[in-house]
Request: fold
Amino acid sequence: MPCVGLIVNDGKDLAVSTADRIQSELEGEGYAVVRVSSSGGMVGFANPDQHLRTRGYSACVPATFHAEMELAIVLGGDGTVLSAARQTAPIGVPILTINTGHLGFLAEAYLQQLDQALRQVRAGEWTVEERTMLVVSVMRGEQRRWEVLCLNEMALHREPLTSMCHFEIAVGRHAPVDIAADGVILSTPTGSTAYALSAGGPVITPDCPVLQLTPIAPHSLASRALVFSDREPVTVFPATPERLMMVVDGSAGCYIWPEDRVLIRRSEEPVRFVRLADHEFFQVLRNKLGWGLPHVAKPGNGVVS
Reply:
């Protein structure tokens, strides 16, 4: 019996009702449906001195999920997709993202396309696109104190009402660098269109095997975004006496103390997105962010001055 997962933002009525419909339809056609809440991937914010994630990032995988599942259908917005990535990447289950939220930058289909999407799932007319994920670990000496998977970015920054911070950053075998700024962002190509873009970083196409380091409000004109191979692990040392705040994908994080260090490395297990058609990244940029739209005064557009 083929098995399909359902990952649902159960705080949204539209997502829940849509999941009810999909589950009824697929079970009626002989599928086994395993349904879970996306909240299982919402790690939340923790003080590592009070709550240790010593089990590692695979702890987010639902107990009822297994690697033999054909795929998992994700119902919600972009935040739900980020959670679902943590729940599925460690076991290699592809995810079909159906947007029931707002922007839907990571969505493969929308509700008005649901019937067609389910037809393609049943017919096996879909492919898989892999996207890089990061493993973010908080280390104190040799002890791992906190760990989570990351699809978009890790942001490490000062707390409100504190002064500018210094960060010592070591990229792979290269000499460490010092950055004076309000914070730093380490992002994947997928995350280059999220927080890193707002901080002035470049957009990176998803097929590039790179990571991006972007300072937040840097104190030096020479501190700019840096793009480098994703084969290089990154270690960030907080060179400041105050505690810092780390936020991962906007839904997970913890305090970082002066004696801690943050280790970021590319995960060996990418998130696997189901694609129902050719994924044209530039078209997504155009539709969602307005990138590359024709200028209203472009010659020959029929505008009469």
User: Anything to note?
Assistant: Residues 3-131+270-289 form a domain with the Rossmann fold fold (CATH 3.40.50.10330). The chain has a mean pLDDT of 91. The chain has five helices and 20 strands.
